[in-house]
Amino acid sequence: MLYNTCRELEGKYIDYLPVIGEKKVVPVGPLVQGIVDDENEHSEIIQWLDNKGEYSTLFVSFGSEYFVSKEEIEEIAHGLELSMVNFIWVVRFPNGEKVELEEALPKGFVDRLGERGLVVDGWAPQARILTHSSIGGFVSHCGWNSVLEGLKFGVPIVAIPMQWRRLVWLWRSTETSMEDSTETR
């Protein structure tokens, strides 16, 4: 099995996985996908960034697997508005959930922003955005790929690990099972 990790970060687990899975584990990473450069796709986002000064814009995205609650959306929106910093914010809703972006945001939020903020509904080309010269920081949920991309492209990360309780539980469960040799799934 090939894993997008390295022994320096997860050596203990790399050694443990073959014991429970009876398959050889080969760490091949960390790997970061290259930038797929389709200039026409999402060009309005890149054009918006082109009008911002160097390192003047914050990129806010919480990945493809975590969806912020209505309350979290409101708090993030208020924080971004009060910061007076340029930002691009990607907001995603679970598949099948019919939510209008304007309804999820605080009333009048988009109008008050003017050209200072861009709110994107659904998906944005994260790697292309992170390589843009206007990006000075990345507010991230700390997913593996997001952290690697932030590091690769030299963008400082404001870490907001959205599923930290789950990670702590998994870490504790794995530590316990490794100590007593029981298998945890």
Automatic annotation (TrEMBL):
One GO-annotated biological process of the protein: flavonoid biosynthetic process
Highest taxon of source: Eukaryota
Pfam families on file: UDPGT
GO-annotated molecular function: UDP-glycosyltransferase activity
Gene3D superfamilies: Glycogen Phosphorylase B (3.40.50.2000)
Keywords for the protein's UniProt record, in alphabetical order: Flavonoid biosynthesis, Glycosyltransferase, Transferase
Signal peptide: none
Family of the protein in this entry: Belongs to the UDP-glycosyltransferase family.
Protein name (record): UDP-glycosyltransferases domain-containing protein
